[in-house]
Amino acid sequence: MITVSNVHKKAQMIAHRGLSSAEPENTLPAFIAAGNRSYFGIETDVHKTVDGFYVVTHDDTTKRVANQELEVARSTFAQLRELPLKDLNGKTGRIDLRIPTLDEYLDVCRRYGKVGVLELKNEYPAQDIREILQIVKKHYALENMVFISFVWENLVCLQREEPSATAQFLTEQWEDTLPEKLRRHRFGLDINYRVLTEERVKAVKEKGITLNVWTCDDPGAAKQLISWGVDQITSNRLE
């Protein structure tokens, strides 16, 4: 792994989909690899199966990570669990490469003392968010979690259900009105690092907002972001 060395380093590093440069993304081996390193947090993505299980995988379908395409929301947990996932070389065969459940991911975070960074994929009804919160409380702890989403209403619902929950709004676009909007709702920001400038970082920090960036694998860019004052950097390979 590449370490972002800087005597003034203050940013917390988050492993994107686990340590996805060393093990296939969003698998237990990727989460464990991140757990064994210096990362502050481990990020993943949660979906709901047709029979009500919560699993962690990024896409709406398994096309990219397996040799068979299944739509996650229309598949049972058993169907998804039986599906062999591709290794980094594109081949299948490892018995430890399966789609994990949300509670299995949380168990890894707890075992290694890492903050869980959980992306709520797509738009969830309030009942599903309540169920996710219940799973988090059962298997880990709410205070050790950060919830992120591109769907603003997911975060609104999350904090309505659990006002103490930490939430960050995911976006790849900058708007000058964003810092004040985030301040009013008490949301952090998780933004594509490429759209940031030093002035924009300053505008966010002046509102007292936690600033996370995705997905930075460039050590030079990471050092610049750190010098600007970002709080967190989500990366596939930097630590």
Automatic annotation (TrEMBL):
Q: Name one GO biological process term.
A: lipid metabolic process
All residue ranges annotated as the GP-PDE domain in the record: 11-239
> What would you give as a GO molecular function for this chain, any one?
phosphoric diester hydrolase activity
Task: Give the domain of life.
Answer: Bacteria
Q: Please name the SUPFAM superfamilies in this protein's record.
A: PLC-like phosphodiesterases
Identify the InterPro entries for this entry. Answer: GP_PDE_dom (IPR030395), PLC-like_Pdiesterase_TIM-brl (IPR017946)
User: What is the name of the protein in this document?
Assistant: GP-PDE domain-containing protein
Q: What species is this protein from?
A: Massiliimalia timonensis
